[in-house]
Amino acid sequence: MGREKAAAGYRELGAAMRRIRQAAGLTGRQVARKTGWDPSRVSRIEWGQINIEVSELTWYLGIMRVDKEVALPLIDLCRRAKEDRGHWLSPHGEWVPDTLSSLIYHESKASVSIQYEPLLVPGLLQSEGYARALISRETWRKGADVDASVEVRLERQDVLARSDCSFVFYVHEHALNLEVGGPAVMYEQMVTLTLLSAAPNVDVHIVPNSAGERSVLGEAFGLFEFEDHSPLVHLDLFATTLWLEEPGFVEPYRGLLAGLADISVDAEESRSSFAALADKYERGSIAHADGKLEEK
Q1: Residues near 120 by Cβ (< 8 Å), separated by ≥ 6?
Q2: Where among 41, 66, 84 does a domain terminate?
Q3: Domain limits for position 109
């Protein structure tokens, strides 16, 4: 059954199938011969325009000799897409360190990305030291896993170079005053914010404490807009990510973002504040280092 607008789950699944085909060095016609599907069906599946049964996907993955650790998450994604509830959960898989393949995929396809973060600097704007301090607190991670997770988080920032996407971030003032990793790490983080927010397609707004209860919207969330598809909302939870696609679920978050735009500091003033905070943390870092020398 075809759709005018491809559902997010099937778009993500189709993209994964396309990567599998390309990694195998095959054309769509060659895959069609292997599967017995019409070449046009292969193309429409890869673009998420038609459904695929779990049994068909499992058969396809077998034919393409896909490893079990890659195949199982895709089969699970197919099941969730088929349920078509307008919302679904994505578990945090070990095969993509630190973040979800779902988030990376939809982030790379959006035409507008808007994020609200009440407690921490958003992942796309984090410096290496800040990201490492946060990831290292997860005591179950080993050293190599921490390194891999930090690398994935930093590589995600490449998406900010997309000229065809506008990125808007609303960062609560609390996140800027919460000292993560010490003054030196926070200095590096404020410099990173100052530099990244200068990009023409990136706007970072401070949500001020002075806005009181209007500045507190609960958990962090993001809204993705697409040129040819329905918008998506994602809420990153401790062990999973909740995705919302049903318009009735998405629209309340549009309202929250409209309210944030009314109370937030404009992008230029916010950038000046990041620079001022960098100076504050640099002085704190020097004082901290001097204190350690005196102790010796």
Answers
A1: 134, 175, 178, 180, 220
A2: 84
A3: 85-295
